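Troubleshooting: if your tokenizer reports a length mismatch, compare your output against this known-good record of 530 residues.
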Amino acid sequence: MLYKAAGEWCRERRLEEEAVEYFLQGSHYESAIALLEEMSSKVVNWDWSNLGKWLSSIPNAILLEHPVLFFSYVNSLVAEDAGDTGKAEELMREADAWFRVYSADMKEEQRHLFLAMAHYVRGTLMVFGHHDLQRAREHYEKVVRYAPDGIRIIFGFPEKPLQPETIKTYKIGLGHAARPIAEPYTMQLAELYRSVNPIFLARLFINYAEALYYWNDLEQAEAYLTEGMKWVEQKPTAAEYELIPGWILQARLRVAAGSLFEATAILEAGMRRMKGMDIPRGVELLDMELIRLQLRSGISAPLRDWMIRCRLNSSDMVSVYELYDYELFARALMLEGRWDEASKLLDKLLYLAESEMRPIDAAEIASMRSVLMLERGEKRKALQQLEEALRISESNGFVRVLIDEGTAVRAPLAELAAAKQRGYYRGREAASLDFVRAILVGMETGAPFAGEMNPLDTVLTAREMDVFQGLLDHLSGRQIADKLHISYETVKTHRNRIYGKLGVKNRDEAVRRAQEIGAQAKETEQDKKQ
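Known-good structure output:
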């Protein structure tokens, strides 16, 4: 009875979380459940693992009679990459079996609420367990359908270390953050969060703003970032998890608009606030971002100073949560001409980024490796590595990753684009010429190249060029039709015309003939210059 008395004492003093702990330690489940249900639709001061630990101490048979608590428990196992996907799926099967037995005795409202929470948790499983935003959105749509007024669930805090970007804290499969998938998913989740827990809109909108930034839609990124930062100011605790990414994105947008001065002011103000909140890691992250932006603007002295005091080493064991630090350290090694150390570190970082499904980091690291190879005179390897960075970026439409690398990759990008025009670096898995051109245009020096005459333009019509591009990319006729939104029969007609104009019988011959035309045009151009 001592535990129950202690729990009641805490409850009377509004120490709800401490009260729950005492009730559970004494196996006073009814008292714990009553208090926990009052806490639903709130973010409690437990991290996800502690929330799951306390809920798991209540027998499943009892939890299932209180679906809010049961699904809060299952959600805690996978939310924020908590990682126990197998256990969560096992519990969901148990919930399905329980529902089949007892649903007939439930009121319609109770059945709908049960199904809504089940779909919410399955949506969470899709995001963090399977990294499938499309299927997650389908589940979230059903949540709103079954419970238009919202569901009740208990939320915990993330256990991840403070990070510079929210988008980098999630595992992203190739193509899963592409705009046609990520945008409707975000809008569906925003609708759900407004009724479940609006405080989560802060992270959602900042995360979406970051995606918009990488898609190079800077105007929309600014709008959603502003909305997200409004919600951050309403967070009762742990606001730094959104403030840091928010300030960093604000600074990047200012640099993209041409004002390093404004970006510096934002980051320095953030550092002062982090010092006032006694969050040293927050100060470190903002300082590193300022150094990165200065380096991009041609100011290297701050990076050299940071390298002396950072105490990092290329032989260190690196956590996925330290990629940001060590990427900057790799840039410092390259700045100092310490190529061997930089190369070994970048190899390690690329493996980590790819194995942990961090495509933005992977693309950035691959582009850095490309620059390093160029410095070593390994031009062919450098272009192959740049192609890898492009392939990773294009899968999610992240144009800005390469744009932000700036002058270091501009020349090899233009050379790679020219090679693609001649038919090289092509294929189903290769980055498209259009994507490379979009990056060059984004760098504001790509317009002359983008408008360069392709010799085939004098032979083929614009639509025939579109179809020919698909042939170069090894797409089937039906895939080309889907991509161009035309019928398969129309594709066959254009393909036959292309073969006729080039005097060839199949795709391989067409590619070779295009290369010959390109080479002849290049020789003619050189003769003119002489």
